[in-house]
Amino acid sequence: MSIDKEIVRKVAGLARLSLSESDLERFTPQVAGIVKWVEMLGEVNTENVAPLANVVNVDLKLRPDIISDGGYQDKILANAPESMEGFFVVPKVVE
Amino acid sequence: MAEIVKGETGDWEIVIGMEVHAQITSQSKLFSGAATAFGAEPNSQVSFVDAAMPGMLPVLNQYCVEQAIRTGLGLNAQINMTSVFERKNYFYPDLPQGYQISQFQHPIVGEGEIEIDLSDGTVKPIRIERLHMEQDAGKSLHDQHPTKSFVDLNRSGTALMEIVSRPDIRGAEEAAAYLSKLRMILRYLGTCDGNMDEGSMRADVNLSMRRVGEEKLGTRCEIKNVNSIKAVQMAIAYESRRQVEVLENGGTIKQETRLWDPAKGETRSMRSKEEAHDYRYFPDPDLLPLVLQPQLVEKIEASLPELPDQKKHRFMSEFGLGAYDASVLIAERSRADFFEQAAKGRNAKLVANWLLNELLALLNKEGKSIAESPISAAHLGQLVGLISDNTISGKIAKDVFADMFASGKDASQIVEEKGLKQVTDTGAIEKTIDEVLAENADKVGEFRSGKDKLFGFFVGQVMKKSGGKLNPSAVNDILMAKLKS
Amino acid sequence: MTELTNQTIAQALEGLKKKQFSAKELTEAHIKVMEETRHLNAYITETPEQALEAAQESDKKITAGDMRPLEGIPIGMKDLFCTKGVRTTAASKILGNFVPQYESTVSGKMLADGAVILGKTNLDEFAMGSSNTTSAFGNVISPWKRSDGSNADLVPGGSSGGSSAAVSARSCMAATGTDTGGSIRQPAAFCGIAGIKPTYGRCSRWGVIAFASSLDQPGIFARDVKDCAIVLKSMSGHDPKDSTSANKPVPEFAAALTGNVKGLKVGIPKEYNVEGMPAEITAIWQKGMDWLKTGGAEIVDISLPHTKYALPTYYIIAPAECSSNLARYDGVRYGLRVDGENLNDMYGKSRAAGFGNEVTRRILIGTYVLSSGYYDAYYIKAQKLRRLIYEDFINAYQKCDVILTPTAPSAAFAIGENDDDPLKMYLNDVFTVPASLAGIPGMSVPAGLDAQGLPLGLQILGRHWDEETVFRVSDFIETAAAFDAVPQMVKKAA
């Protein structure tokens, strides 16, 4: 499937990237080219191959249920672009 | 007991599947060591992981995994020995990572089933599709400022179980019964406190309509923000009517997320969620598949408490209780425990009567829980014991009970102090009866000439004279003998 | 002073111990070079005050006879490692003036072992790139120049280009890197130094800003193999805060450098003989084989049949993970915020303004391949290929102990040379990406110069968790190659 500007516009929307028309025009052929290139994987028959998500062959370690972190509101807010009364502040969300 | 919505053009059936989010009762969060307690200062129970600071990584809480397994077993469900955490990608200010770590294709718990109890005495099975673990989001406050929303991440990362039912629920009553039963099971298991006010249990209702007799499911809407069992019932009533109206007017139902507005008593479309959902799930590369050891599942299974339905059936068979009494007793684990403790070595049916008709009524009136009862289980048992061995009569017992509730003293002490012990000595009973008969010679005559109804009058007089302390059946026997002689 | 900056870490530790110079002097010497080589743009943030303070602390330890494994050693820290109280940027505008309130596990371990951090080194934005030309803080310039007198500025490789340039230019003795598809090995080759990416799971990723989590792995650059072994020891080990970090014992890597490769089987994958590879690269590869053969190793022909699919596999998996990993940069809790009319507008504007072209491109690709309807065709397909590539290596290691390949298909190129076409740029990683997908350790050692006087590297790949053999073979090649070339500017300064 070939990628056009509208697909890139939709994807940019999903990724919350406000791209200008000229950005979209610039990125579309690049993204299309790369996606077309990766489609060469279609040559390989992978019918009986299980997907591999991670190469580390160890069991997932679990931690005990102990309160060992948090309690530093100041550090959490230290880099906030906007905060008030201990909260992060963002433009109003309308439901 | 399917509820039918009568439309202009015919009858409609309500089809509901529920998604319940139950907060796991753990000390710390699903993937971080920050505390989970409710009501703390904003952003004070937040770790760098919960705030999704750059480079932070999740580490899974062992206890939460055990609680999910425990819940799965309590729902009679399949435990999946391998499950996978995936990322559900979307943007929202109270979702710091830009994705929620959840389970999608491989949940920890698969299919199960619970039974719900309906008001007509029937029992209906509701199938569970799955249970998976996921992170909760933070909270956005929209009403603190005219142009800003405030974000508190204290809840961010708290462990949730999402319990998804099959669309087996056929109306508001069944939905309420399902939620009550689910909550009861979670509380028995101790895996979730089931507190809907504090949001530790939240329900989303997936509702569609179809004509009675139709097998195909209709298009459903997901109703969010239903924060109590009552709200669930009201939302279902509203939404089912709305859908019928749309359908009967030739419209189609759009699959969408709708918000329950408790103030207006209506559901409305959530515009913000309307944009195409594309969550782009994929396995979280920061975590590995969760592989359970069979021994762990076995250990949890062995430690499961008796569940509500098991307890109910046992109460019926072991104590000879009726289904209704048994179901009221088991509704709360603490209540059932109280009953069993009180009933130990006593007449269990009598204990159940006293607990259900007297103690619970009084506690309810005073707004107290069973844990706060001034009458302990042992004391209630003792009271019933005094009745059973004829130390006091049932009538006296009521006074003693009131005294116990007010003073917290035990029954024997009150009986002793007030000299309420029942008289069973026939000599003493005969003496009182003789006195009463002597004082009412005219009535004795009437009785003997056929006015049988006066028997009750004599009993009353005898009991009154003795202050209710005479054994009623002995009074009956002796009185009858004397009157007839 | 220049002598102080021209020694290895092993020599410096010896010198400090014998009190031939102080840690403060060693640090000052490197700070001086750091200042003199600012035109390379190798550092985004310099921290000389903290460095001197740490050096003085080191001197106290040395005096007390209490030397730690990296006592007083001046290093550079890739600006992808979060450092407590020191601005960390990932070379991106989106992080703005982000100052972490925490220390990454790896930098923390190095500090605990006595290392002196001189500053945060430049990189490709979010480690996405092979030339260090995508940094929001400007290109890094390689200290190397072509011998033809053209004076063109060359790339140091990427993404850890600031680290490789700094180690090569002598403004630090070692520098951390991260390697997702070759980001340590390729810049090491371009800058004529040694660099190792250990087995995935060997070093904790906690506190390292994520690019592609299933591939990212911290590692180290130094001027020789032994120094890499010394520093990697400090960086390695299980971290309960990283679920993908393995609980494996960390060997004394430096002890593996026996100089003996007798009987070792060295695999030569035929698929790495790619079409159009420069003759000089083929020649240096052959030299490597010859050295090893002379040392008693056995050269074995092997096949890694799915090699040609490694790059497209990587360019699905890495962007997919990156698109999700970078979702947290939303202008809410830290970093750049550009005000908008509403929340979504704020998100879109902040992210568009904060991310550069390469990052934006990869987020677009990653979002696309994960989106509904394409997930199976791209992402799942890539994961299946990843298994085949992984199994290629497992099968190959039945026949050999290590694999020898060139590190990169060319020497360093000029800045701007490959900019027109992202695909052409991606081909730089053709030899390094397969090992990243398999999670195996890989090291690049300088093996010679090309006709233009630029360094060429050989890559040594090992079995999972077998960094020791990788170090042993790398050290052997390093000795055999007797590579002693340094950049002109270093020579001039000396």
Automatic annotation (TrEMBL), chain A:
UniProt entry tagged with the keyword Transferase: yes
Annotated GO biological process: glutaminyl-tRNAGln biosynthesis via transamidation; regulation of translational fidelity; translation
Classification via SUPFAM superfamilies: Glu-tRNAGln amidotransferase C subunit
EC number in record: 6.3.5.-
Catalytic activity line of the entry: L-aspartyl-tRNA(Asn) + L-glutamine + ATP + H2O = L-asparaginyl-tRNA(Asn) + L-glutamate + ADP + phosphate + 2 H(+); L-glutamyl-tRNA(Gln) + L-glutamine + ATP + H2O = L-glutaminyl-tRNA(Gln) + L-glutamate + ADP + phosphate + H(+)
Source organism, top-level taxon: Bacteria
Record keywords, A-Z: ATP-binding, Ligase, Nucleotide-binding, Protein biosynthesis, Transferase
The keyword Phosphoprotein appears for this protein: no
Top EC group: ligase
GO molecular function ontology, one term from the record: glutaminyl-tRNA synthase (glutamine-hydrolyzing) activity
Family membership noted in the UniProt record: Belongs to the GatC family.
Function: Allows the formation of correctly charged Asn-tRNA(Asn) or Gln-tRNA(Gln) through the transamidation of misacylated Asp-tRNA(Asn) or Glu-tRNA(Gln) in organisms which lack either or both of asparaginyl-tRNA or glutaminyl-tRNA synthetases. The reaction takes place in the presence of glutamine and ATP through an activated phospho-Asp-tRNA(Asn) or phospho-Glu-tRNA(Gln).
Subunit structure: Heterotrimer of A, B and C subunits.
UniProt name for this protein: Aspartyl/glutamyl-tRNA(Asn/Gln) amidotransferase subunit C
The organism of origin for this protein: Micavibrio aeruginosavorus
Upper classification of the organism: Bacteria, Pseudomonadati, Bdellovibrionota, Bdellovibrionia, Bdellovibrionales
Gene that produces this protein: gatC
UniProtKB/TrEMBL annotation, chain B:
One GO-annotated biological process of the protein: glutaminyl-tRNAGln biosynthesis via transamidation
The keyword Cytoplasm is assigned to this record: no
Superkingdom of origin organism: Bacteria
GO terms for MF: ATP binding; glutaminyl-tRNA synthase (glutamine-hydrolyzing) activity; transferase activity
UniProt xrefs under InterPro entries: Asn/Gln-tRNA_amidoTrfase_suB/E, Asn/Gln-tRNA_Trfase_suB/E_cat, Asn/Gln_amidotransferase, Asn/Gln_tRNA_amidoTrase-B-like, GatB, GatB_C_1, GatB_Yqey_C_2, Gln-tRNA_amidoTrfase_suB_CS
Keywords: ATP-binding, Ligase, Nucleotide-binding, Protein biosynthesis, Transferase
Location of the Asn/Gln amidotransferase domain: 337-483
Gene3D superfamilies documented for this protein: 1.10.10.410, GatB domain, N-terminal subdomain (1.10.150.380)
PANTHER family the UniProt entry points to: GLUTAMYL-TRNA GLN AMIDOTRANSFERASE SUBUNIT B MITOCHONDRIAL AND PROKARYOTIC PET112-RELATED, GLUTAMYL-TRNA(GLN) AMIDOTRANSFERASE SUBUNIT B, MITOCHONDRIAL
Protein name: Aspartyl/glutamyl-tRNA(Asn/Gln) amidotransferase subunit B
Annotated source species: Micavibrio aeruginosavorus
Gene (UniProt): gatB
Automatic annotation (TrEMBL), chain C:
Active site residues of this protein: 78, 159, 183
Reaction catalyzed: L-glutamyl-tRNA(Gln) + L-glutamine + ATP + H2O = L-glutaminyl-tRNA(Gln) + L-glutamate + ADP + phosphate + H(+)
Keywords: ATP-binding, Ligase, Nucleotide-binding, Protein biosynthesis, Transferase
Main EC class the enzyme belongs to: ligase
Amidase domain location: 25-470
GO molecular function: ATP binding; glutaminyl-tRNA synthase (glutamine-hydrolyzing) activity; transferase activity
Gene3D superfamilies: Amidase signature (AS) domain
Pfam families: Amidase
Protein family according to the UniProt entry: Belongs to the amidase family. GatA subfamily.
Subunit structure of this chain's protein: Heterotrimer of A, B and C subunits.
Function noted in UniProt: Allows the formation of correctly charged Gln-tRNA(Gln) through the transamidation of misacylated Glu-tRNA(Gln) in organisms which lack glutaminyl-tRNA synthetase. The reaction takes place in the presence of glutamine and ATP through an activated gamma-phospho-Glu-tRNA(Gln).
Protein's recorded name: Glutamyl-tRNA(Gln) amidotransferase subunit A
Source species: Micavibrio aeruginosavorus
